[in-house]
Amino acid sequence: MGKPKKRTSPRRTGARRSHLVLKLARAVNAKSPVKVRTTAKETGKKAA
């Protein structure tokens, strides 16, 4: 799955656009038989 580009300067609020990636992932999960991992809470992945 394609990811949106990060902003060039690191360590800023909203620099990592993970919220956009999540939005895309949820859209994929709604339609596709192949599921994408979103968040640990949503996917039920055990904490290591």
Structural class: mainly alpha
Please give the share of residues in helix: 25-40%
Please count the beta strands (DSSP E, at least 2 residues each).
0
**Mean pLDDT, nearest integer?**
77
Rg of Cα set:
13 Å
Residues in β-strands, percent: under 5%
Report the end-to-end length measured between terminal Cα atoms.
25 Å
Q: What's the helix count?
A: 2
Biggest beta sheet summary = none
Q: Can you describe this structure in just a few lines?
A:
The protein is mainly α and 48 residues long.
Structure commentary:
The chain is an all-alpha fold. It has two helices and no strands. The radius of gyration is 13 Å and the shape is flat.
List keywords for this structure.
flat; 48 residues; mainly alpha; 38% helix
SSE layout and pairings?
Layout: H1 18-31, H2 40-43
